[in-house]
Design brief:
Layout: E1 4-11, E2 16-23, E3 31-35, H1 46-54, E4 58-62, H2 80-92, E5 99-103, H3 105-116, E6 123-127, H4 135-147, H5 155-165, E7 182-185, E8 188-191, H6 208-219, E9 226-231, H7 239-248, E10 253-257, H8 264-267, H9 269-282, E11 296-299
Parallel strand pairs: 3-4, 3-5, 5-6, 6-9, 9-10, 10-11
Antiparallel strand pairs: 1-2, 2-4, 7-8
Helix pairs in contact: 1-9, 2-3
Length: about 300
Amino acid sequence: MTRTDTRQHFRGDGVDLAATSWSPAGPSSGIVVLLHGGGQTRHSWQRTGERLADGGWRVHAVDLRGHGESEWAFDGDYTIDAHARDVSALVSRLPEAPILVGASLGGMASLMAQSANGSLARGLVLVDITPKARPEGLTKIHDFMARGIEGFDSLDDALAAVVAYNPNRRRMPRAAGLRKNLRQRDGRWYWHWDPRILAQRENSVEAAAERESAARSAARRITVPTLLVHGAQSDVVSDDGVNDLLALIPDARHVEVRGAGHMIAGDDNDVLSGGIADFCSSLRADSAEHYRFSRTEHFSSTTGFTPREE
C-alpha cells in the first residue's frame, strides 16, 4: 500500500506545534495522534506512524511544546496542564475525534486532556505511564536530561549517554540516528528541547505526589476505550501502578511487553506498533471485533500481539 507523508504545523495553546503526518492510500479509518515522551521528539513514532497509515489511518505525530521543531513556550510553562491544553487545542482543529496515543509525558497530557473533555477522543492509549510512578525511574529520567544540558562534544558522546541510560536495550541506536534529536551550536551538540522544562517545579521528582493525585482524579473520569501498554522491565511503571490504573479505569485493557523498559518504542518498536495498530482497528466504526481484548495480555518480539477473546 502506498502512503504519503507531509510536514505541517498545528496550533496549540499559544504555541505552534510541528508534526509529521501520514495519509493512507485509500479511504481513512480515522485519525490517530501520536505524542512522544519528555526529552524526545515526534521522530520516535516514525515506524508506528507508517504502520498505522499502511493500515488505513490518517496519522499525526506531534512535537510537544518546547521539543523538536515546535515552539518553546514564551512564558516557560511546561506543566502537564499546559501540554494538555495543547492536546485539546490541536484536537479541536481536527475534522473528527481521534485516537490519542501518548508515551510517558505525552500519555499523561492525553489523559488530562481527555478527562477535561470526555468527547475529545474516541480512544486512549497510554504507553508506560500511570498516575502512580516509581520515584527512582523519575529521578533517572531527570538526571539523564540534566546531564545533557551542557551539550556534547560529538554525536558519539551523545550516543554514549543514551547507552548509559539504557544499557540493556536490545537494539542500540546509531550516532547518526540521533541527529534529529540534537542541534549543533558553537561546535557542540545539544538535545533539542527547552532546558526550562527541568526548572518547572511541577515537573520535579518532589512534586510526584501532587501529579499522582491529579492524574488519579483524571483517570476516574475516563470513559473511552483505553489501552495501557507497559514495559515489563520499566523503572517508571510498577505492577502496583498498573493495578491502580486498571482500578481507576475499570474498562481499560493492559498489555505487558516482555523484554521492554520504559522506552518501549526504542526497545521493541515493531511489537508496540502492532499492539497499537490492533487496538486502533478494534475501534473502527465498521469493526466486528470491537474492543474484545482480554483484560491483560502479555506479548514480546517472539510471540507478537495476539489478543484473546473474552
